[in-house]
Amino acid sequence: MHFTKMHGLGNDFVVIDAINQAIHLSAEQIRFIADRHFGVGCDQLLLIERPVSANADFKYRIFNADGGEVAQCGNGARCFARFVRDKNLTDKDRVTVDTDAGQLLLRFMDDGLITVNMGVPKHAPAQIPLSFDAEALLYPVELDGAVIHFGAVSMGNPHAVIMVDDVANAPVETVGARLERHGLFPQRVNVGFMQIIDRQRIGLRVYERGAAETLACGSGACAAVVVGIEQGLLENSVIVGLPGGELRIEWAGRGQPVFMSGPAVSVYEGRIRI
Ligand SMILES: N[C@@H](CCC[C@H](N)C(=O)O)C(=O)O
């Protein structure tokens, strides 16, 4: 099986052309490929397939390192776009892709970055999903006797966002891991730790569902900015500083899509026998 190792701000991917190769991977095989000791190593594995809708160019599927299939991946979407152009699977400047979270529109920009229309965020608890009856700006959760408050939103995948004073020292591994599997989130959750630096800049670290902390999470960056704007703390265009680099996130408010702009890089080509 041929693959390309790619990354978006250090959030790394094994990307596989499943149009020109017959690929059927079990969850166990995906865990093996993603393993950093025995396999290739990656946060997510991406499969590029033929579209399912008449107006789309491709379909892409996303698997976390734990083997679970999920519906949304912002950094993966930019890598998908770079992959289909580099492999001459398309020469379009605007690409439409089917995902399990709906269609995404991707655009190659003159500055070399890729902008993704990440869709309209969903706020109702049932749509996240989150086990609260009523929607709120912040929800409480008790962990080890302490009450923590978080914002929550779906970007096609579930996100909880906790505000911190110092993102470098945020309890990402401990609180992130506990909240990822907390009973409040029936489909588990991605957990972001956001430090507001000013109204146009935040620092963010994300403990990802099915992958633990990554160097960057595109959908997590969108979720954090949406939560910050909803609370009146951020402008409509925000630079998100992640451990792996920066993304620009733009959101005009309720009912509008979120736009994410950032880089996507190919690292090497490889073959693996499975
Ligand atoms: N790294 C991704 C998100 C990947 C999926 C996520 N871990 C989930 O389970 O929803 C991104 O850049 O958005």
UniProtKB/TrEMBL annotation:
Name this protein carries in UniProt: Diaminopimelate epimerase
Keywords, comma-separated and alphabetical: Amino-acid biosynthesis, Cytoplasm, Isomerase, Lysine biosynthesis
NCBIfam families: DapF (TIGR00652)
Pfam families linked: DAP_epimerase
Residue sites binding substrate per the record: 11, 44, 64, 74-75, 157, 190, 208-209, 218-219
Function: Catalyzes the stereoinversion of LL-2,6-diaminopimelate (L,L-DAP) to meso-diaminopimelate (meso-DAP), a precursor of L-lysine and an essential component of the bacterial peptidoglycan.
EC number: 5.1.1.7
Subunit field text: Homodimer.
Chief location of this protein within or outside the cell: cytoplasm
Active site: 73, 217
Pathway linked to the protein: Amino-acid biosynthesis; L-lysine biosynthesis via DAP pathway; DL-2,6-diaminopimelate from LL-2,6-diaminopimelate: step 1/1
SUPFAM superfamilies reported in the protein's UniProt record: Diaminopimelate epimerase-like
Alphabetical list of InterPro entries matching this protein: DAP_epimerase_AS (IPR018510), DAP_epimerase_DapF (IPR001653)
Location within or outside the cell: Cytoplasm
Catalyzed chemical reaction(s): (2S,6S)-2,6-diaminopimelate = meso-2,6-diaminopimelate
Keyword set includes Amino-acid biosynthesis: yes
PROSITE patterns cross-referenced by the UniProt entry: DAP_EPIMERASE
UniProt entry tagged with the keyword Cytoplasm: yes
Family the UniProt entry places it in: Belongs to the diaminopimelate epimerase family.
GO molecular function terms noted in the UniProt entry: diaminopimelate epimerase activity
Site positions for Important for dimerization: 268
Site (Could be important to modulate the pK values of the two catalytic cysteine residues): 159, 208
